[in-house]
Design a protein that fits this description.
Chain lengths: 307, 432
């Protein structure tokens, strides 16, 4: 069992078979995570490197823990303390890490396409842990796993993604994955942050959140990055919350059993009201757990190891 | 006396209305005559050396003129030098280049102009005509010394690479340059709309997560500069046209006939689309960015109907280390001198242009726009001749470019037009 490519650069590059394989494998690893001893020797002797060019706590920790659960040796390569600050190029850094024997390179980078660039230049497997405003494939995969658990399947679901679609790699990976698996996708947000050309992908676009939430099975809220404020995308976070914040009232507009998701970290009171974030419908903490299982699956499937 | 006979090639020279098999005779660095083939001059070879180039089955063109080239010297010699850039031009069949002022220091005064001219004479292998900056330091604040630069050898003024944002400054440039009759070459880009952009804006930029540059960033400035040319009566030349609407705006302005406007495009704008960026190929990062199919078609139509006067390369060599990195961080530009004729000949293959029109766009018109006495095979003119073999297919091998810049999205393309011989000021360069 393995993926068709040596790398996971994005959902764009996966077919449905690959996606299903990752989800099924992740479901298997979830059992491991439920055990007392949460560790298997699957990847003993392999080395993985977390190469993070952007600050990240949850994704990096999740990958680190996933690697450790598989008995992989994992090293965190933090940019500020490395020779990158001395001006080393991405390519040289990655080649150096590869020369140290890393078989799996997990990269997060502010520039879209950086993992693709590395994948072309390295023999090691490159896993995209978020690149610029391109993709965050493992986040989408964990979201899919969560939806599948909650709803039994993806096909036919109506998924509303709300917020800054333009800059959200989480949204983009989810859109590609959901469309590939046959879900309906609605994008909701201010026109400055939801490019109208995305309709060409086969999604529906709403600026009126109330209309967009009607009959939705899943509501996926995106983090609003505070640095977008003051750049003309929206006037203030108060006005943003008024138009696109998920409140208990708005939640009523969706299906009765609609699931609320958020990739975190949340801005309570900006894109999501606290009572909704902590409410019964929220799957936010399950997403985190599923993230671990999905990342174990990805590391395992890319390692080429038979278990 | 040095004589060269180019025998029995198909001579295309729009300046004399020639398209037919002729012999071209060169004497002491000048064109002596273009005559019916086989005609022998009486007496013959009375002393002096004689050099016969058999051009049967080949095209014999006036030496190509590329009015938009970055030679990078002074300041960026690691990317290109006057020596390597002009050698690359010759290899591409180009015998005259106009070099843009965004060097370091900027070519915004006569001493930099003189340096470039001198270097070109010492080390260059084709004719070099510097383009001066519109404003001092290309900062867009104060006009540069047009007259002094003109007298030192500049034939046009441009803001290339750092567009003039201020409308009043552009107005003044178009007004003031009238004393010289030299064109103002405008790089049309509204920097507030293109800010941070690295490719064409649209679904592809959104799905790649790359910041887009809308076509309107170019079109708004094309419209502005045409309006200012109409206001001032100045000579405006629009650089590297990349969008369908820009073509439309220029076409309409030419039809009105109020202003003195010309325009150029580059081979990459009629050869490839934004699709070339799909795998984050930094060699396809260029400014203005590669656009869509409908833009490519409109550019071709603009070339065909005369809206676009010239084909220039915007040759922008970069070092491999600069291009081999994250797309967002790689500089914009394509090394274009050595693929220009090969790509442009495809327009003839596709029936977009006749050979005569092609030579107009690549030699005669750019020479006229820049006020040069090039782009012609008339007797007495400089012996700049490009002999093109159109019958041998070859694969573009960017690593083997003469230019220091190997940054080409056309690497490994199969083309069939390539110079076999380039003659510049009477000096014969045979290739292979």
């Amino acid at each position: 069992m393995s993926l068709k490519s040596k790398d996971l650069t994005g959902i764009k590059e996966l077919d449905t078979e690959d996606i299903e394989l990752i989800l099924d494998t992740a479901a298997g690893f979830k059992d491991v995570l439920g055990r007392d001893i949460k560790k298997v020797p699957a990847l003993r002797g392999k080395t993985a490197v977390n190469l993070f060019y952007e600050p990240s706590t949850r994704t990096r920790t999740s990958f680190e823990l996933a690697a450790k659960r598989l008995s992989t040796d994992v090293v965190n390569f933090s940019v500020s303390t490395s020779s990158v600050v001395k001006g080393e190029s991405l390519r040289d850094t990655a080649l150096t890490i590869q020369a140290l024997g890393a078989a799996l390179i997990i990269v997060r980078h502010p520039c879209s396409g950086a993992p693709h660039f590395l994948a072309r230049h390295l023999e090691a497997s490159v896993i995209n842990a978020g690149d610029g405003t391109d993709e965050h494939p493992t986040q989408a995969l964990l979201d899919l796993l969560t939806m599948r658990e909650k709803r039994g399947g993806i096909k036919g679901l109506e998924v509303a993604i709300v917020g800054d679609i333009l800059h959200s790699r989480v949204a983009k990976s989810n859109i590609y994955a959901l469309l590939k698996l046959g879900a309906g996708v609605r994008l909701i947000g201010p026109p400055t942050l939801v490019p109208s050309c995305m309709e060409e992908l086969g999604v529906r676009i709403f600026s009126d959140m109330d209309a967009g939430l009607e009959d939705a099975d899943i509501i996926m809220m995106l983090r609003i990055q505070m640095e977008r404020q003051g750049k003309g995308f929206f006037p203030s976070k108060e006005e943003y919350f008024k138009n696109w914040g998920l409140t208990a009232r708005r939640l009523m507009l969706a299906r009765k059993n609609a699931v609320v998701m958020h990739p975190g970290p949340m801005n309570r009171g900006v894109e999501i009201a606290s009572d909704v974030a902590d409410g019964r419908r929220s799957a936010i903490l399950e997403q985190v757990t599923n993230g671990l299982a999905v990342r174990m699956a990805v590391l395992y499937l890319l390692s080429g190891v038979k278990w | 006396m040095v004589r060269v006979l180019i025998a029995e090639g198909r001579v295309i020279d729009p300046s004399q209305g020639i398209d037919g098999v002729r012999d071209v005779v060169i004497e002491d660095g000048k064109i002596k005559e273009v005559r019916e083939r086989g005609k022998r001059e009486g007496g013959k070879k009375a002393g002096g050396s004689r050099n016969v180039i058999a051009a049967e089955g080949m095209l014999v063109l006036p030496g190509l003129v590329d009015m938009h080239v970055h030679l990078r010297e002074p300041g960026f010699e690691y990317k290109e030098t006057i020596k390597t850039g002009t050698a690359a031009a010759l290899r591409g069949g180009i015998t005259s280049v106009c070099c843009m002022p965004n060097t370091n220091p900027v070519n915004d005064n006569s001493s930099v102009t003189e340096f470039i001219r001198k270097r070109a004479v010492q080390e260059g292998s084709c004719s070099v005509f510097p383009v001066g900056a519109i404003t001092k330091g290309q900062r867009g604040e104060e006009l540069a010394e047009f007259t002094m630069m003109y007298e030192a050898g500049c034939m046009a003024f441009s803001d290339d690479g750092r567009p003039v944002t201020d409308g009043m400054m552009m107005r003044r440039a178009l007004e003031y340059s009238k004393i010289l009759g030299a064109p103002v070459i405008s790089h049309c880009e509204d920097l507030s709309l293109s800010a941070g952009g690295v490719m064409n804006e649209g679904l592809l930029s959104v799905t790649l997560g790359l910041k887009g540059i809308p076509s309107q960033a170019e079109e708004i400035m094309v419209a502005r500069d045409i309006a200012l040319a109409e206001l001032t009566g100045g000579r405006l030349h629009i650089a590297h046209v990349s969008t369908a609407r820009s073509v439309e705006i220029i076409r309409a302005a030419k039809k009105r006939g109020i202003a003195d406007i010309t325009a150029e495009t580059c081979p990459h704008y009629f050869s490839i689309t934004e699709e070339a960026v799909r795998n984050y190929d930094t060699n396809a990062r260029v400014n203005p960015p590669l656009r869509r199919k409908r833009d490519v078609e409109a550019i071709m139509e603009g070339l065909r109907d005369g809206t676009i006067d010239a084909i220039a390369t915007d040759h922008a060599p970069h070092h491999m280390d600069e291009k081999q990195r994250e797309f967002d961080l790689a500089p914009s530009g394509i090394s274009g001198l050595e693929t220009s004729i090969g790509l442009s000949m495809r327009l003839v293959d596709d029936g977009v242009l006749s050979l005569t029109q092609l030579v107009e766009k690549m030699a005669f018109n750019p020479s006229a726009i820049a006020g040069l006495s090039k782009g012609t095979l008339k007797p007495g003119s400089d012996a700049d001749v490009t002999i093109v073999d159109t019958k041998t297919e070859y694969s573009v091998d960017a690593v083997r470019f003469v230019s220091k810049g190997k940054n080409s999205p056309f690497d490994s393309w199969v083309l069939h037009a390539r110079p076999a011989v380039t003659i510049c000021n009477g000096k014969v360069h045979r290739w292979e």
